[in-house]
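FORM 7B: Structural annotation worksheet

SECTION A. Query
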Amino acid sequence: MSRIGRLPVTVPSSVKVEIQGSSVKVQGPQGQMSRTFSPGMNITLEDSQIVVTRETESREHRSLHGTTRALINNMVVGVSTGFDRVLEIDGVGYRSEMNGQNLVLYVGYSHPVVIEPPEGITFEVDTKTRQVKIHGRDIEQVGQIAANIRKVRPPEPYHGKGIRYAGEKIRRKAGKSGKAKK
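SECTION B. Predicted structure
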């Protein structure tokens, strides 16, 4: 039995869940999400808890059991509180700012890089600590936007300049050692 799959998903009082066959629709203060899962998974709502069981012990159903439960849990958490991802900008002259809803990055290029948030994503910029906070209800979308922003100027190993995730360790390399004596 899947250790993650057998755990029930507790539904907060502010979240409304609708289950129709293998599709789940979740509504909460942050918005709504819906997703259709494999028909081999039985999803039921029992007194403010969502329980996921599998029809058979086949390899496919066993592999989908924990994944289905984790995706439902991410949906419930996303519409109730949302997900955050924090990026740090490090480097001389590197900075970020907001222009309306858009994020503007100044990271060593000849031009500023403007990133428009998709629907459901918001940016916050802290100019003192040079951090960018990405907030949204879909954990996959938040992670993908964070990866796209990081890709604009990934951290380089010699000086550590660039955009990195908060808490990410950058392996530093030694620079040139100078001329060899003849």
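SECTION C. Observations
The first strand starts at residue 9 and ends at 10. The chain has a mean pLDDT of 92.

SECTION D. Sign-off
Analyst initials: ____
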